[in-house]
Amino acid sequence: MKFQHTVSYAAIITSLAGGLIAPAAVNAQTSESASQGADEDIIIVSARRRDERLIDVPIAITAYSAEKLEQQGAIDITDIGLTTPNTTLEASRGTNSTLSAFIRGIGQQDPVSGFEQGVGLYLDDVYLNRPQAAVLDIYDVERIEVLRGPQGTLYGRNTIGGAVKYVTKALPQDPSFKAKVTYGTYDQAEAVVTASMPISDLVRIGASGARLSRGGFGDNLTNGLENYNKDIWAGRGTLEVGGYGEPVLIRISGDYTKDESNPRGGHRLIPGAVSGAPVLDNVFDTRGGLNDPIQDIEAYGLSMNITASLSDTVTFRSISAWRKDDTATPIDFDALPAVDLDVPGLYLNEQISQEFQLLYEGDKLNGLVGFYYLDAKADTLFDVRLFTTFAGLTAFTEADVDTETYAVFADFTYDFTEQLSLSVGGRYTWDERTASIVRQNYLGGGSPTFGGAGIPFGGPSTDFQGSANFKKFTPRASVSYKPTPDHNIYASFSQGFKGGGFDPRGVGVNAPTTNASGIPSDSEVASFLSFEPEEVDSYEVGYKGSLLDGALNVAIAGFYTDYKNVQIPGSVACTVGGLPSFCGVINNAGKATLKGLEFEANARLGQDMIASGDRVTLSGSLGYIDAQYDEYITNIGGVPTDVAEFREVQNTPKWTASGTFSYSTPVGEGDIYLGTTLSYRSKTNQFEIANPYIDQKGFALWDANLVYNAPDKRWSIGLHGKNLTNKKYKTSGYTFVAADPTTGAIALGANGQPISTLGPEGTLTAFYGNPRQVFVTAGVKF
To answer: pLDDT band at residue 737, thresholds of 50, 70 and 90?
Structure first.
């Protein structure tokens, strides 16, 4: 059974009744009436960058349509992590905008420039190379898709865990206007306005503007700033030429985000060792005194997406993009007023990318070949200020890490019969990583970069320039058997690859050396700072089925992943030139095995029960993962030691689950939606070393939504409640306390509290997910 797209680059999304769309779909240049399709239980996806029924795609996918995101009151992309199996999407510690993403046990939460993410984030098919400014707010969105497992063939760079695709709405052919306002607890006040109009039969323009604000969940008791507030201006503009039956579509888009939210201060979990500062009652309150530089995040970019139908069977695509983001942020590690373990930082990122694709769609053979190029520059600058520890000591670091990547790829599917299909693909990647890392100590104040008056002393403890090249071929293959068009049993194998690099926080003078002078050679410094690529081999079997005439849709997947050369970055207390300091540490710890199961379903439990046209639906997801290190080599007393039995895979709860029960019914000529969602995550380790202070025990969150849509959805009003039980749960943290190097057990001092390893007060701080929020939305469109 073939489904031809009427416009190249188009894909059709149809929502199963109620709930989130368990594996789902897309839209590009498709009218609303067309998107409903002949059978409203059919979902068309573009996970393999061509249009296919979801049921035919041998990949584990969860997707969320714009309608479902609005029904659920989703605020930003981290919300979807709660209802996607084996997925963690969170804001990373000190800002609202830096993303920490993990899928099936693979990710990266360290945002500095030397480390790449393990989950690829795509904005309109443009890969975002850095996690800063990557917590995308949900507005003007068509759908969001989560692809689980390595996507190294079609999505390429750093998708060894999976990919998250954020797709904005295409412009309609007719003039349109849409506005939405939100008001809620904590002074939440938001407005989004979107408008578009045709200039001619072939040309359309459109723009969206958003003002997103909220008061703090707590306060900074030292400087009076609201803590966990939100203060964002954002906008997008689009020009489209062609499409809607024309052989060529050119889409030029620009976006801009300005985030002036206050820095997120951590909550201390232990009293101050010297000051005796008690643990605060409100987990959203903080006492950190650092507010230099003033937090400011600016991100913007341009992209041009061209699609041309060269014939009935061949389509050409070009995706060109330039992006830039600058983040200035003050990080107060110990969350106390004293200037000690205070880290003002700058993250400066810029990238250009180009992708070409040539697609073929025949009777039995479908697929594409492509080329990808990325040139990315990432600069990280920060002070580590230890003023009360040692007479105003500052360690300043500037790390400039540039990445140049080339890749060629292909992916094809051949249908031997209507029941049996074979897919094969591969990508060859060339990565070049170039780093310039300088670290200099200052006395008596901060570095000049951050307005300090410190005096440099001694030579640089790191003065490194180097480059490394990495090459890898990553294949993929799958076989699908469809006993009927509504059932698909598949098995697949795929490889993933993430390049190596250099630790931007490493201290070159601390490199082990055989030189009699005690001064390491350039090659010894390079070896000390460098780390090797990660690789994964992933095996997956699955079933997707539509049963009971479309009333029940099910997706089940089982996976087994060999994870090799796992990169473990971190920061620890250390000594540099006899002085206490803060050092980066990284090693390729060894091997991990990740295996698990995933289940997603949508069920229409009833229809036309109380009133004609009403529906009762239940959608749910369940994820299980057994994630463990088979080998974890670390240096203990100068001896490489395997501590795998004492290490955990971070940000990977063993169980994730969610369920959404909903009821929809016509009311007059409009309709009303009532839904409630319960999500659960089992115990989560924030780092590889278990820490009873910052690790989060299992918890559940309860949301509820009530939405009324007027006839033709010309206007709507909704009432949304999130985390209604006001559960307090940790999402991340910082730790600088003494622990057993093998077991990780935290050592306690005579006072029964952990012993500080850096700074006099001891640092064990945590950051928390959002508390209870209740808000009203109102929208209008015409």
So the answer is: very high
One-letter identity of residue 154 = L
Nearest to 315 by CA among 51, 131, 543: 51
Closest CA to 161 of 494, 389, 607, 492: 494
CA 371 to chain centre: 24
| Residue type, position 400, single letter | D
Residues 170 and 35: their CA atoms lie apart, in Å, by 13
Peptide bond into 692 cis (omega under 30): no
**Interval 275-296: pLDDT, tens:** 999 999 999 999 999 999 999 9
Give the type of residue at 648.
E
* Cis-peptide, bond into residue 293, ω within 30° of zero: yes
How large a percentage of the chain has pLDDT more than 90?
79
pLDDT digits (tens, 9 = 90+) for 414-437: 999 999 999 999 999 999 999 999
Q: In 221-266, which ranges are E strands?
A: 226-227, 230-242, 248-259
- Whether the pLDDT of residue 48 is over 80: the answer is no
Give the C-alpha separation, 339 to 581, whole Å: 14
| Other C-beta atoms lying within 10 Å of the C-beta of residue 506 | 27
Q: Looking at the DSSP assignment, which residues form a beta bridge with residue 497? A: 535
Work out the angle at residue 86's Cα, subtended by the Cα atoms of residues 152 and 565, and round it to the nearest 5 degrees.
50
CA distances 136 to 239, 324, 645, Å, are 21, 15, 37
| 547: Cβ contacts below 8 Å, ≥ 6 apart | 486, 553, 554
pLDDT band of 645, cuts 50, 70, 90: very high
Q: Which residues are CB-neighbours of 413 under 8 A, at least 6 positions away?
A: 48, 365, 366, 367, 421, 422, 423
Instruction: Report d(CA 628, CA 594) in Å as an integer.
Output: 7
CA 23 to chain centre: 18
pTM of the model: 0.92
Residue 56 identity: D
- Helix (H/G/I), strand (E/B), else coil: 188: strand
CA distance linking residue 735 with residue 620, whole number of Å: 36
